[in-house]
Amino acid sequence: MSKNWYPVIDYVVCAECGLCVKKCPHNVYDVRKAPTPVVVNPYDCVQGCHGCGNRCPNGAITYVGDNTGWTPPNGDNEEGDCGCGCDRGCGCE
């Protein structure tokens, strides 16, 4: 887990669809607030994981610490590799 990497939600762009909350197996989001994405455990996010951002249909998610050149795909990367390397269903298996 990382203290230098976590999602940031642009609530102006966010449609509150809940895909990011449903996708994250790392307990970063408050599931009680779903479908509104509220980051409550930012340090539980896995360094380099773009799992929730890859699924956001509006491209409302960016990451603190992201210098990889990744840009929000606006939901086009439905099953893409998030890059976190875990085995918890982020799409990186």
Overall description:
With 93 residues, the chain is largely without helices or strands. The chain has a domain at 6-64: Alpha-Beta Plaits, CATH 3.30.70. 11% of the residues lie in helices and 9% in strands. The protein is built from two helices and two strands. The protein has helices at 19-23, 51-55; strands at residues 6-9, 61-64. The protein has a two-stranded antiparallel ribbon. The longest helix has 5 residues, at 19-23. The radius of gyration is 12 Å and the shape is globular.
Q: Topology of this protein?
A:
Elements: E1 6-9, H1 19-23, H2 51-55, E2 61-64
Antiparallel strand pairs: 1-2
Trace the largest sheet across and list its strands. Answer: 1-2
Approximate strand percentage = 5-15%
Average pLDDT for all residues = 83
C-alpha-based Rg, rounded: 12 Å
Backbone shape:
globular
Helix share of residues? 10-25%
Query: What is the CATH top level name of the domain at 6-64?
Result: Alpha Beta
Question: What's the main sheet like?
Answer: 2 strands, antiparallel
CATH topology of the domain at 6-64: Alpha-Beta Plaits
Low-confidence stretches: none
Quick take:
This protein has 93 residues and is largely without helices or strands. It is 11% helix and 9% strand. The chain contains 2 helices and 2 strands.
Keywords:
single chain; 93 residues; little secondary structure; Alpha-Beta Plaits; two-stranded antiparallel ribbon; 2 helices; 11% helix
